[in-house]
Amino acid sequence: MIAVSTASTASGEHPADLVEVGHVTEAYGIRGGLKIQPYSAQSDALLGTRSWWLRKGREIRRVEVLSAKRHGASVTAMWSGVTDRDQAQAWKGWTVLVPRSEFPPLAEGEFYWVDLIGCELIGKGENGEDRLLGSVSHVSDNGAHAVLHVALVVPVALGESSQPLLDAKGRQRETLVPFVEAYVRNVDLDARRIDTDWPEGF
Predict the structure, then answer these.
(1) pLDDT in tens, 6-44
(2) End position of a domain, from candidates 102, 135, 164
(3) Domain boundary residue, one of 39, 68, 102
(4) Which residues of 171-202 are buried (b: 16+ CB within 10 A; e: fewer)?
(5) How many domains, in total, are found in the chain?
């Protein structure tokens, strides 16, 4: 049993827009500190709010964060009710979630990865016309920049019905598109569209 002053919540009693932003990897120090591994290089969502939600299995708990700061590629934090290393270590493996509505605003031209997932990737056909290439299934970080993982479709003109592009084993093919200006021309989150110079033939 974790001895913390937080409330265990049943399904439906937590915000509907919770987004996974990291997980607890270990205790940090001897005074109840914890080390969090963010799921992207953008740790703003962790640092910009003082209420986190922790999940393990079917259990979800809210914690009031007392402090949080970057520590290399990780984030170190302390929250109410955790005062020693044993209590902190009991949180190891819990997933950290934050409501999307509480993410701090970003500068123009910056994007949270969660907002890119599901966007359609629009490329150019042989004649320069816009073509649907696929949709972003998830985003990763290669250390230098973000990388879009795109579930491919058979390229079609915009508005036409699309079919998954399959490999020899019948699995949907994927391509990796660096999320850099050399390839990404425009991101329109309202239209759920990413315009790219990524070639149709990959």
Answers:
(1) 334 444 478 899 999 999 999 999 999 999 999 876 688
(2) 102
(3) 102
(4) eebeeebbbeeeebeebeeeeebbbbebeeee
(5) 2
